[in-house]
Amino acid sequence: MEYRRLGASGLKVPALSFGAGTFGGRGPLFGAWGNSDAQEARRLVDICLDAGITMFDTADVYSGGASEVVLGEAIKGRRDQVIVSTKTSLPMGDGPGDAGSSRSRLITACEDALRRLGTDYIDLFQLHAFDAGTPIEETLSTLDDLVRAGKVRYLGVSNFSGWQAMKSLAIAERYGHPRYIAHQVYYSLVGRDYEWELMPLGLDQGLGALVWSPLGWGRLTGKVRRDQPLPAGSRLHRTADYGPPVDDEHLHRVVDVLDEIAQETGKAIPQIAINWLLQRPTVSSVIIGARNEEQLRQNLGAVGWALTPDQMAKLDAASSKAAPYPYFPYQRQEGFARLNPPVGDFMPPTAA
């Protein structure tokens, strides 16, 4: 397993990390993802550790906290071997204090996560969404307190816009608070919006990308095909409306090229899609999920080899889409491009 620095920090994380959203399996969304109990989760953690995957990502909102509980059981007795990443801010209930990033909510959420995980510290504590109703200064000072208390070691965010992340980083610098080092983001061959603003921000500010849903919300498994119905067992039957939309023709154009490269390499389509991400700028780790041992072992085949420059170029071309304003001038007009070359096309594919 390759290890990379997470953003501008000294923390080294594996190129692949494991997403524990399949643990617990409660509710319409997470129940469709998977329902691994503690025994099965421990087996999946065993396989991960044998392969060098040492980081495990979860969130309080995953199955209403059950994911954290199951993960805690699965890593019991080997806490020093793993990096635990969890997230908070999304609603855990209907009460006024059950969501957001206020001082009260963050302290409570951290204590609850520590209890569910069965640990006394969290390696990476991330805000799951931006809270526009809480002053950023309040959020950052509270996170600073949690770091100083030794309950949290590193900080990150997830699903922030560019201005939300940049404003937070600027305020952290102004007051001497710990800076965010990670941005957990959606990024895939059928969802490259990350490249237009958040990737340049990550390069400039030292935010390492932790990629969620690298297979485009289950669309890049190789089972979704042109002019064919969704497979009976596809989770898209129950979860399509929760995830990012993808135009069917765009998806099939990408899958056609993935098929071609699969023939050339002997690799599975999911392995190719993940390998492409691992060669993109700012990507520190790609979060893989698995409902069972077979899925996990297939995803592990995404590392230990690399797509050729020609194969990368074919995938880039097939998955490219016109940029939205204000980015399209940089894509189409020579003068703008000379001043700010598009990161996704011209920066070297090195990890943060």
TrEMBL record:
Keywords: Oxidoreductase. It comes from Streptomyces spiralis. InterPro entries: AKR (IPR020471), AKR_Detox_Biosynth (IPR050523), Aldo/ket_reductase_CS (IPR018170), NAD(P)_OxRdtase_dom_sf (IPR036812), NADP_OxRdtase_dom (IPR023210). The keyword Lyase does not apply. Residues 16-318 form the NADP-dependent oxidoreductase domain. Pfam families: Aldo_ket_red. PROSITE patterns: ALDOKETO_REDUCTASE_2. This is Aldo/keto reductase.
